[in-house]
Amino acid sequence: MSDNKFPSPFEIETPPGAEGWQKMYNWYHLFGEERRELDENRFWFADRLHHPDVMHPYDEIQCECWWQALGAFNTRIFAMPPAHGVDQRILNGRLFITAVAAPAEDIPARAEEFAGRASHYYENWESIYIGWKAKVTAKLHEIRAIEFAPLPNLEPVETVEQHVGHSAGFRMVRDFERLVTTMYETYQYHFEMLNIGYAAYLNFFQLCKSAFPGIGDQSIAQMVGGLQVDLYRPDDELRRLAKEAERLGIAETVLDGSMNVEQLFERLSDDPNGKAWVADWNATSDPWFVINTDPGHPGGYHTYDTWADIPDIPMVSVREYLRRFRGGQNIDRDTAGVLRERDRITAEYRDLMSTEDHAAFDQAVALARLVFRYIEEHVLYIEHWMWATFWRKSKQLARTMAAMGYFDEAEDMFFLRRGEVTEAIYDLVVGWSVGTAPRGPGYWRPIIEERKGIFEALKAWEPPPALGPPPEEVNEPLTVMLWGINSDLVREWGQNDEGDGKTLRGVGASTGVVEGRARVLKHVSEMSSVQSGEILVCPATSPAWAPIFTRIAATVSDVGGIMSHTAIVCREYGIPAVVGTGNAVATITTGQRLRVDGNSGVVTLLD
């Protein structure tokens, strides 16, 4: 592939009507002449896994959190031998990223340092993970306790009598900073174990590639699958609620699709068993339905609510499971079968090795299985529970400021950058404190209106999958395992661009070959439209999509690697998957016949 295969970021034009979009984002996040020589010679790919859509200015905080944290743990804390961090740039409202290689001359010393530091974590993984859960849960409780309410006309007398010593206005300023800082701190914890977890899996992956030439990526992944992890708990709870509806004799009422959830719960509350089922649902909802509905990697945008916010989404799945259960089907996941297959494949490959290599193989597979639980479960704690709470509190603040007349509507706040929101809160609080009008309502209104127009113009732009010269080698663990980006895939992207329009290539993430009709979905709220046996085509999936995997025949995604959520879940459910195709959603339309080859990573358009 030539160095000119993908356009330079400095050649990309601004979409009509989006002039001045750069003012919506922080200056350090943009391509600029000051580092043009550096950035023009690096390979950037669109991060559709975390940020598949145009980013609101306020939501820039999400990618800032992981930008700094991932880099620090790779580069400064664990000294990952081949790679530093993952750099970011925003272009036309979309996030592009690139892996930063460690200097070749530093790798031997970094490898020695990494061995000692990572070993400490590997040897104490279980106890560290228990402490990790406690730390993250404590931070979750901290931001759940924050409340933003309109400032009172007069402080309650208790402020005087209890010698509080500060005002509600001060607390609004303080609590917003606390909200942001706590989210940043939690994202440090996010990468405390994640990078070295992927490194352990990558080590096992490379050992297998070396020992067994020609082994498929899926076979390697199957050797570490089949574990019971909390990430599957939300879907398991939907199945349990379906069974409970049948046991309590309320199945016919639950299956009445003419009612939304609010109406259904009102109807059920007239019956003791129905009332018990509703209470069960509500008790289950927190935390197991605090599941973000982002189209791909969860927690990336404030615009997506949770199952708990939109209970009609999980109810679709409860009704589906209930219909199947009543029809005599086993609706439980076949975890035991996945474990049997895992052990069979592991034993067969182990038998191919010489006896003296068994110890190294056993150690590598055991470590990969050990870290796998965290790799999956951390998503629940951080991307769902923490980010859902952060966005909920941010929306509460926005509603409060709108109620005080600072914004015309709550959504306006999200068209300001995080630092600008800090300024706006201070301006509001000063006006309240002094008893005068803040400047903000008139100052921000034209800025927000301009940005709303720019935002709509940016949504019409379809970003290329990549920018700049292709890499010779990609070896940053998250880039390989999570995003699935490597030189081979980049070449496949090029073939997709040059091909006859009948073939897409990506990463074969779950074995098997299936033909069927496509169902293109961009959001989990469209899940009810999927017919049994269709092939799901989507940007990516998150745990919010879990119930769909019992209905579909295969999955094709725009983004993801062998250890992405889509790949892992498809292997657990035993359905073929091709991930990381780059542009399946834009290429395929609902109803087209496809052949999905999860062995080779090829998707063929048959129509």
UniProtKB/TrEMBL annotation:
What are the boundaries of the signal sequence?
none
InterPro entries for the chain: PEP-util_enz_mobile_dom (IPR008279), PEP_Utilizing_Enz (IPR051549), Phosphohistidine_dom_sf (IPR036637)
Where the record annotates domain PEP-utilising enzyme mobile, the positions are 531-601
The domain of life for this entry's organism is Bacteria
Its recorded name reads PEP-utilizing enzyme
Species per Swiss-Prot/TrEMBL record: Pseudonocardia adelaidensis
